[in-house]
User: Which sequence fits this backbone?
């Protein structure tokens, strides 16, 4: 689209999470009039750490915000998968993207603060819970619970796994329970029993449980995450310390000790959900991004990265296409095959037997001979 057309484009982004905030940044750099509408009255991201891949960091460099992200993250060279007692299963360097070779490990809260911190303060409108969206073809009207109403040439639905935009216009199927729970917290590096020796992610897997140790050196902390099988689909289930200890039985005693020492008030407990692939992400004036379009399980660590890539691809498409309608079709054609594959792969449980299927040829010789 021509620069003059982009500058006249009124864009409403629903949701101020990773996808929404990134889309707002990328689209505002086109010169468009962008506003973000977030249902929460204050922004607060709970949970623990994530990894921002090299291709994601390249987007931040392109948008001029690399330093803002880098200063609250730690560069990592590789990730490693081990048995419950620490024998190696596989070790792989992060996939490089151009000159960028490091994945940056970051706390979810620091990440969303950094993203929102590079947006103009008056761009983000809190306390706007979307109730209804009316697609009028060349524009759409948003109606919020607080009585506000907004019309925009383009609506970007970045409102997460329970997306109202997706439910109203594209797919009314709800989230899908994975049969797992995730228990996430952040502890001091001093409380990690000497298990954090560098800036690299390690995952211990066995008997239906995965334990992630993700260093956050810039905080002198480590993200400690347990994902375990559980039939309880309650969105935010109640669990006890004994419940957690049962999931790590048979693991390295240091991991058991970390679990035993946890303050349960600091542990974020969630049933793990994703969504089935959505057939279509866009109309002529509305498009889904991030979890609203393709929420996936965290086994590949690609949820936040995919949301950032969506934002970049959407901005690229608007630059390249002749109209909003054509841009949204180009965006979906570019991103949907990628995220469909990631959703499928992420549903693989990553049992020790499945590792070879996800990372063919990566098992160390010693581990391969034990099969």
Assistant:
């Amino acid at each position: 689209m021509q620069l003059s057309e982009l500058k006249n484009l009124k864009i409403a982004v629903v949701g101020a999470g990773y996808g929404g905030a990134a889309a707002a940044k990328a689209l505002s750099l086109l010169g468009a009039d962008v506003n973000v509408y977030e249902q929460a009255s204050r922004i607060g991201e709970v949970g623990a750490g994530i990894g921002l891949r090299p291709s994601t960091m390249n987007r931040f460099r392109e948008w001029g915000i690399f330093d803002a992200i880098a200063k609250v993250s730690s560069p990592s060279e590789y990730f490693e998968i081990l048995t419950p007692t620490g024998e190696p299963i596989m070790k792989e360097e992060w996939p490089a993207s151009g000159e960028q070779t490091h994945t940056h490990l970051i706390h979810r809260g620091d990440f969303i603060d950094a993203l929102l911190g590079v947006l103009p303060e008056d761009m983000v409108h809190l306390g706007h819970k979307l109730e209804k969206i009316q697609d009028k073809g060349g524009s759409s009207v948003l109606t919020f619970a607080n009585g506000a109403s907004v019309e925009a040439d383009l609506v970007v639905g970045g409102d997460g796994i329970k997306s109202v935009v997706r439910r109203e216009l594209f797919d009314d199927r709800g989230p899908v329970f994975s049969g797992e729970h995730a228990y996430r917290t952040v502890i001091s590096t001093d409380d990690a029993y000497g298990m954090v020796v560098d800036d690299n992610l390690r995952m211990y897997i066995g008997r239906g449980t995965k334990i992630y140790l993700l260093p956050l050196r810039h905080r002198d902390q480590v993200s400690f995450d347990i994902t375990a099988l559980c039939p309880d689909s309650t969105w935010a289930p109640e669990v006890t310390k004994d419940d957690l200890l049962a999931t790590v039985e048979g693991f390295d005693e240091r991991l058991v000790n970390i679990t035993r020492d946890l303050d349960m008030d600091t542990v974020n407990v969630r049933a793990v959900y994703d969504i089935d692939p959505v057939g279509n992400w866009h109309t002529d004036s509305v498009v889904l991004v991030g979890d609203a379009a393709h929420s996936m399980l965290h086994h590949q660590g690609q949820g936040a990265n995919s949301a950032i890539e969506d934002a970049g691809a959407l901005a690229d498409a608007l630059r390249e296409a002749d109209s909003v309608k054509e841009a949204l079709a180009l965006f979906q054609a570019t991103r949907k095959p990628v995220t469909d594959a990631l959703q499928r792969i992420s549903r693989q449980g990553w049992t020790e037997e499945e590792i070879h299927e996800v990372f063919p040829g990566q098992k160390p010789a010693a581990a391969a001979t034990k099969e």
In short: Confidence is low (pLDDT under 50) at residues 358-371. The CA atoms of residues 76 and 102 lie 5 Å apart.
